[in-house]
Design a protein that fits this description.
The complex is a heterodimer of chains A (258) and B (290).
Chain A (H helix, E strand, L loop, with lengths): L1 H31 L7 H11 L4 H25 L6 H39 L2 H7 L4 H39 L4 H11 L2 H29 L5 H30 L1
Chain B lengths: L1 H27 L3 H4 L4 E8 L10 E4 L2 E11 L6 E8 L10 E6 L6 E6 L12 E2 L1 E3 L4 H9 L11 E8 L10 E4 L2 E11 L6 E8 L10 E6 L6 E6 L12 E2 L1 E3 L4 H20 L13
The chains are: A mainly alpha (258), B alpha/beta (290).
Chain lengths: 258, 290
C-alpha cells in the first residue's frame, strides 16, 4: 500500500517536474528568439517542412470533414425543416471547433512527430553536442526555428482547413443535396461573425495550439535519452501529450474566448 | 543555394496561400459587412419591452440596413429600456417624428429595429430622441390572443360544476376556456366518454361570479379562428331559473369537423353546379343526395 502510494507520489512529482522543465525550456526558447534572427533562413526552411509539406493532408482532411459535416447536418436539420441553416451550422462548427482542433491533431501527428524524431536523432548522434563545441547555440539554431515555424504554420493551416471545409460543405449541400446556393451563403454570412468566429475561433485557438505542439515536440526531442528506444518513446509522448493538451486547452480557450 | 531558394519560394507560396484562405474566410463567409461601422451618429429610443433585441442588431429602414443597435440599457428608475441606435452618417434624412419598431425577421429569426418615417420636415441629428416607439409583442401574448386561451380566468372566487353531453367534442381538451359572449367565465375540467350513452361528457367549472346563467342555455363547442384551439361557448336561454352546481346542459351543439364541413361544402357546390348546368332534363343528379 505504502509502496503504491510512493509510486503514485513519484509519478505525480515526476510529471510536475516534467511540466516545470517544459516551462523553463519555453523561457529559454523565448530568450533565444533574438539570437536566432540570424538563422532566419533556418526558420523559413522549417516553415517549409512543417507548414507547406503538411498542406496536402490538411487540405484533404478539411475537404472531407466539411463534406461529412454537411451531409450529417443536412439530415438532422431536415427533421426540423431547417436545411437552409446547413451552411451557417457547418461554418460555425468548423470555425469554432473542428477547424483548429482537427488541424492541431493532424499537425501534431504530421509535423510534431517529425520535429521530435529529428531533434532526438540529432541528440542521439551527438550533433547537438557538436554544435555546442562549434559555439553555435543549439537552442537558437535548432529549437527556436522549429518553434517559430509551428507557431506561424498552425494558423495558416487552420485557415486553409476551414476554407476547404466550407468548400466541401458547399459541394455536398448545394451540388449534391440541393440546398439553394444563395440561402447557403446568405445564412452563413448572416450568422458568422468575423471577430467572434474567425479571429477568436480560428486564429487565436490555432496560435495557441501551434505554440503548444511546437513546444512539446521540440522539448521532447531535445530532452530525449540518446538511444533509438528513447527517440521512439519521445515521438510517442509528443503525440500523446500534444493531443491531451490540445483537447484540454480547447475547452479552456472556448470558455475564455466565447 | 538554388535548393535554399526553392524552399524560400515554396514557403512564401504557403504563407500567401494561408493568408488568402484567411481573407476568404473573413470576407466571403462572415458578416464583415454587418459589423463594419463607418462614420455614424447616435439617436436613442425608449421601448417598453425590447424582447430578444441584442447589441449590434441591425437598424433598418424599409428593410435596408442603415445602422446597428449600439447599446441597450435600463432607464434608471423606470421599467423602460433605453436603446441607442448608431445610424450611418450617409442616412442623415430621418424625420424626427419617425417611429422605431422592434421587428422579428421571420418566425424564429433575430430581432431588429425598423424605422418608419414620419412627415416632419426636420431630421434627426446626433443625440436626438425618437418619441414614437413600438415594442415587441411577446409570443405568449400573441399566441394567447390568437388562440383565445389567454383569457382563461383563474377561478379565485370559487366555481360550480356543470356537465354537458356532446356527440362530438372535436379537439376540446381539459383547460380550454368556457366563454359567454366571448368572455371567459370558466374552464373545462374534465372530458370523458360516457360508457352507456356513448357520447362525450364534458364537465366545466364556471366562476361563482356568474351565477345567473339560465338553465336552458345551450353549450356549443366552437373553434377560435380557423386553426385556433377549441372552447365551450354558452349561449344564454330565457329561463327564469339559473344553473346550479351539478346541473346539466340540455341543449348542446357538437364540434364541427373540418372533414364534415368540407364534405358538405363540396357536395353542395357540386349539386348546385349540376343544377345550373343541367338544363336539358337530366334529373336526379347523384351528387344531390344528402
Amino acid at each position: 500500500m505504502s509502496a503504491q502510494l510512493q509510486r503514485g507520489e513519484n509519478v505525480l512529482i515526476g510529471s510536475l517536474a516534467q511540466i516545470g522543465r517544459c516551462g523553463l525550456f519555453l523561457l529559454r526558447i523565448l530568450a533565444s528568439i533574438p539570437r536566432s534572427l540570424r538563422h532566419a533562413r533556418e526558420t523559413v526552411r522549417q516553415l517549409w517542412f512543417v507548414g507547406a509539406m503538411s498542406l496536402t493532408i490538411i487540405m484533404t482532411c478539411g475537404l472531407f470533414v466539411g463534406m461529412v459535416l454537411s451531409l450529417q447536418l443536412y439530415h438532422v436539420l431536415s427533421i426540423f425543416g431547417g436545411t437552409s441553416a446547413t451552411g451557417s451550422v457547418v461554418a460555425l462548427s468548423v470555425y469554432r471547433e473542428l477547424g483548429p482542433v482537427v488541424t492541431a491533431l493532424l499537425f501534431a501527428g504530421r509535423a510534431g512527430t517529425s520535429i521530435t524524431a529529428e531533434i532526438g536523432l540529432m541528440r542521439a548522434t551527438d550533433q547537438i553536442a557538436a554544435m555546442e563545441m562549434m559555439a553555435v547555440d543549439p537552442i537558437a539554431y535548432v529549437a527556436v526555428p522549429r518553434f517559430l515555424a509551428g507557431l506561424i504554420a498552425m494558423p495558416l493551416l487552420s485557415c486553409v482547413f476551414c476554407g476547404l471545409s466550407i468548400f466541401g460543405g458547399h459541394l455536398v449541400a448545394v451540388d449534391w443535396l440541393g440546398v439553394d446556393n444563395g440561402t447557403f451563403w446568405s445564412n452563413m454570412t448572416a450568422n458568422v461573425d468575423v471577430w467572434d468566429d474567425v479571429v477568436n475561433g480560428v486564429i487565436w485557438k490555432s496560435l495557441v495550439f501551434g505554440a503548444v505542439i511546437a513546444l512539446i515536440a521540440v522539448f521532447q526531442g531535445y530532452t530525449t535519452p540518446p538511444t533509438s528506444e528513447g527517440v521512439a518513446y519521445a515521438t510517442t509522448r509528443t503525440v500523446v501529450a500534444s493531443s491531451i493538451a490540445i483537447l484540454a486547452l480547447d475547452f479552456v480557450l472556448t470558455a475564455f474566448l466565447m | 543555394m538554388s535548393q535554399r531558394k526553392s524552399y524560400a519560394v515554396g514557403t512564401g507560396l504557403f504563407i500567401v496561400f494561408g493568408f488568402a484562405a484567411l481573407a476568404y474566410l473573413a470576407t466571403q463567409t462572415t458578416s464583415i459587412v454587418n459589423s463594419h461601422q463607418g462614420a455614424s451618429y447616435i439617436i436613442d429610443a425608449q421601448f417598453a419591452n425590447v424582447g430578444q433585441l441584442k447589441d449590434r442588431a441591425p437598424v433598418k429602414v424599409a428593410g435596408v440596413r442603415v445602422g446597428q443597435v449600439q447599446s441597450i440599457t435600463l432607464e434608471p428608475g423606470k421599467d423602460v429600456a433605453d436603446v441607442k441606435l448608431s445610424i450611418d452618417k450617409k442616412f442623415n434624412q430621418i424625420p424626427t417624428d419617425s417611429t422605431a419598431v422592434i421587428y422579428t425577421s421571420g418566425l424564429l429569426g433575430d430581432q431588429y429595429v425598423g424605422l418608419q418615417f414620419g412627415n416632419a420636415k426636420n431630421y434627426v441629428t446626433d443625440g436626438s430622441h425618437l418619441m414614437l416607439t413600438r415594442s415587441t409583442q411577446p409570443l405568449e401574448e400573441m399566441l394567447g390572443k390568437f388562440f383565445g386561451a389567454g383569457g382563461v380566468a383563474d377561478a379565485i372566487g370559487g366555481s360550480y360544476k356543470v356537465t354537458a353531453h356532446f356527440t362530438n367534442v372535436g379537439a376540446l381538451s381539459v383547460g380550454a376556456p368556457v366563454k359567454m359572449a366571448g368572455v371567459a367565465i370558466g374552464s373545462v375540467i374534465d372530458v370523458k366518454a360516457d360508457p352507456v350513452k356513448l357520447d362525450a361528457t364534458v364537465t366545466i367549472a364556471i366562476d361563482n361570479k356568474y351565477k345567473q346563467i339560465p338553465d336552458d342555455s345551450a353549450a356549443a363547442v366552437f373553434t377560435s379562428g380557423l386553426i385556433g384551439s377549441q372552447y365551450v361557448a354558452i349561449q344564454p336561454g330565457g329561463s327564469p331559473n339559473s344553473l346550479k352546481d351539478g346541473d346539466q346542459f340540455v341543449l348542446t351543439q357538437s364540434a364541427m369537423q373540418l372533414e364534415d364541413l368540407i364534405g358538405k361544402f363540396l357536395v353542395n357546390g357540386s349539386s348546385s353546379g349540376n343544377s345550373n348546368a343541367g338544363g336539358n332534363g337530366s334529373s336526379n343528379p347523384p351528387a344531390g343526395k344528402h
